[in-house]
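Just curious. Protein, please.
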Amino acid sequence: MTRRVRLERDTLWLSAADLAALLVGIAVHVVLTRTFADGDYGRWVLLLDLFYVTATIIDLGLPTLIGRDGERLGGAAHDLVHRCLRIQIRFALPIIVIGGLLGWMWVGESKSWLIASFILALSACVQILTYAHRAALRALGESRQEALVRFVDRGATAVGIVLAASQFGAHPIALALATFVGPCGAVLIAIRLGERRLASTTGGMELKTTVADGRELIGLGVPFLLAAIALVANVRIEKLMLGLISTPMQVEIFQIAWLAFIAGYAPILSIRAVMLSWLGEVRNDTEKMWYRAKRAAIIIGVASIPGFFIGGLIGVEALVAVFPDYADNATVVFSWMLFAWLLALFASVPLTLVQVSERPLRYAALLWSGIIADLIACWVLIPESHNPAEQAAFAAIIGASVVLIASTIEAWRLHSMASPSFVAEP
């Protein structure tokens, strides 16, 4: 039987997996804050964030093409996934080498950190290589299986880090190797589940992605690559700027608040991922697509109220209970970041409408407008501040506001143009 994408069900599966993974991740960060000393936890966070951003280049926007067109491609989706992976693997090696060197040059310290940098860069790249099969599973209605891959990624890493910390303490190489365990397990499971599901898929229609060669696929994916980098940078730019113009201690404070924030941000990313396939399925039928968009907006509006108040209360209490040494400063930062969360949630529908349109480059431009606003705000607010981490939270609010306003204007512009932007085949 064919399993179709459903917004509520699939979002619930992915959100549940992300929430479980984040709870496990928070436990890992508790271990790391108590294992590292003298700013090394801040260095670790900076390395992870740097590699998440640089490794995203390997994405090339190709998994987004799979997620958007997978259901309509039918049996041809299998070949598309394989072609995308062959392209991505070619980009992986230089990114690992360049990223490892950049990371070590930033944190410096010792040869141990150099080796750890390369291992963490490799880990981030392997994680990206799971995205093609994950996108295919989601597009074919198997978000429950993608949820399993996500949980294995974080869960196996968590177990590895806890064991490494108990045996080797704050040794960066041991902890980096432990971080590599999750992506390895995830890529194996993603390939197994994805291949089995793709092999049973038949039918479908011919689209540009069906016949495009490697260069053409990269060209089609570039707008989504820019968007993918923006999505990763968007929730990390404040930490990277704090690491650049402030101190590792301020990075640590912001990171603790960020852990509570990202627990609520993960469902936003899940909603956007599911909406991409859900709206993409009817992107040639303007009336159906806008009906689905309105339905999604109502669900999001209703969910935002308990999310803001209940999530905020739980987040503050969790920070106080789990990170008492950071709680005084981190709870203030988190409270301000809640407003950025709310703005990002409301931007989900207009952003996805632009993403599935015939001009996806505008989607990337919208995300980058927020990042640029965030960068400028960080550059103005953080230097000479008595509370740099709090100022970084204000910058996040400014960036989220810009994205919401700009995406809403662009979505209404598309709506006013009736169907032309959505009728043509990609």
Notes: The two ends are 27 Å apart (CA to CA).
